């Protein structure tokens, strides 16, 4: 049992040393928030940046739409399942309100498979539109450095490298300046 404790203590000590002995340039963390369609772009950028800057920590996460859109999409998803269930069961929901069923309901009862498919695909189209942000936002040490929402396009790899190089030069310059105390 003692060798296990000793090896864990040594491992903890070395991991602490490795985590504190890092790059003093100030760049520690890059965060990329992206829409689901840009996951592959994120992975390509991450791989290229790790080759050029092995000490940088890159995080990626999904860029969420505003809460109202998420709630509407969630409601629509549940409502879609309810409508499909009512179509399959064949119960006329308009009778509950004392109304005559409209022509599209009559058609849906005669063509249940098509009606269910139409409800499913139309609802999914609206849900995807609500949840799609088209975002690819990049922050460096919690400071925004690129926004696809503002610029209208993704940064090229050259632009991203230039942003990082400029940030590193600025941080090295700031770290090399003497500090004066009054």
UniProtKB/TrEMBL annotation:
Signal sequence bounds: 1-22
Membrane listed as a keyword: yes
Catalytic activity: [thioredoxin]-dithiol + NADP(+) = [thioredoxin]-disulfide + NADPH + H(+)
InterPro entries linked: Selenoprotein_Rdx-typ, Selenoprotein_T, Thioredoxin-like_sf
UniProt GO cellular component terms: endoplasmic reticulum membrane
Compartments reported by the entry: Endoplasmic reticulum membrane
UniProt xrefs under SUPFAM superfamilies: Thioredoxin-like
One matching Pfam family: Rdx
Keywords: Endoplasmic reticulum, Membrane, NADP, Oxidoreductase, Redox-active center, Selenocysteine, Signal
Main location, first listed in the record: endoplasmic reticulum
Molecular function (Gene Ontology), one example: thioredoxin-disulfide reductase (NADPH) activity
Family note: Belongs to the SelWTH family. Selenoprotein T subfamily.
Chain's role: Selenoprotein with thioredoxin reductase-like oxidoreductase activity.
Protein name: Selenoprotein T
